[in-house]
Amino acid sequence: MKSMFFNEDGILNIDEMVVNNTSFKNIMEDGVITEDEIKIQSDKVIAMLHDMEKRYSDEQLAEIKNLLVESSVLYAVYNFYSIQNINK
Q: What b/e string do you get for 49-71 counting C-beta neighbours within 10 Å, with b at 16 or more?
């Protein structure tokens, strides 16, 4: 069975998913990220979360929330790790 989240080597496939995402492609098209583009993407994410709140059970929402938080932690610590290693 093909995995939705991992590539053939069992590696989390987020980078590829982001690069191939239409929203990302549209924002990055001209190489400049504007406040308007950030606002539009923020509004899109907020609308998706509100829609999920209406459609999913409390248990499902707790799992989604946990995934979002843990993913955000990974993103934050990866960025801090990258910054701390710039001068090495």
A: eeeeeeeeeeeeeeeeeeeeeee
How confident is the model over 31-79, as pLDDT tens digits? 999 999 999 999 999 999 999 999 999 999 999 999 999 999 998 998 8
Output the pTM of the full model: 0.78
C-alpha distances in angstroms, 9 versus 1, 3, 25, 41, 84?
A: 13, 11, 25, 31, 28
Name residue 6's beta-bridge partners. Answer: 12
What sign does the CA torsion over 72, 7, 30, 48 have?
negative
8 A C-beta contact, residue 27 and residue 37: yes
